Amino acid sequence: MNRNSRGSGKLGRLVSRLRAPARVRRADVRFWARLVLGALLAADLATALAVFQPWSGSAQDLERRLAALRGEVASRRQAVDRLRAVAAKVQVAREQAERFVAEYFLERRTVSSTVLRELDALARKAGMKAKEGSYLFEPIEGSRGLSMMTIHAGFEGSYADLIKFLNLIDRSGRLIILSDLQAAPQASGPLLNVTMKLNAFVREDVGESLQARAEASGS
Questions:
Q1: Do 128 and 162 lie in a common domain?
Q2: What residues make up the domain containing 97?
Q3: pLDDT of 62-85, one tens digit each?
Q4: Is residue 81 located within the same domain as residue 173?
Q5: Total number of domains in the chain
Q6: What is the pTM of this model?
C-alpha cells in the first residue's frame, strides 16, 4: 500500500505540474486582453477629449455665440436704419407731391372757367384773338381723384404775337402744357390761324372726393 500511495502522490504532482502552465497561459491571455481593451478605451477617451475639449469648449462656444449674436444685432440695426431712411424719403416725397398737387392742380369745380379765362387773358396780352375751343377731362391712370383737362383752342394773330403768347403760357403760374400746335397763314394778310392742344391738371374737391368714396363703399 505504501508503494501505491507513493505512486499516486507522484502522479498527482505530475498532473498539477501539467495544469499549472495552462492556468498561467489563461491568466496571461486575460491580462493581455484587458491591457488591449484598456488601451483602446484610453485612445477613445483621448480622441473625445481632443474633439470636444470639455475643459474649454463651453466658454469658446459661448464667445462664438455671443459674437454671432452681436453680428446679427448689428445687421438688424443696419436694416432698420435703411428702412427708416427709406421711410423718411418716402414721407418727404409724399409731402412734396401733395404740395405740387395743391399748387398746380386746379379744383374740378372751377378749373374750366379758371383755365379758359387765363388763356383768354394771355392771348389778349400777346395780341392774339381767341376763336372757338373745346375741352374734355380724362382720369390720370394709377391716381385717385386726379384728372387731365385737354383743351383744343383756336387763335388768330401774327407770328410775333404767337411767339409772345407762347412765352406767356410758359411763364404762367398755372401748369398749362402745350402738347400740339398747328399754324397756317391766312389767304390774305400776314396773320396766322393757330390751333393749340393744351393740357391742364385737375384735382377733385375734398367734398366731392369724400362723397364719391362714400358712394363707392355704400355700393
A1: yes
A2: 55-104
A3: 787 778 888 888 888 888 888 888
A4: no
A5: 3
A6: 0.53
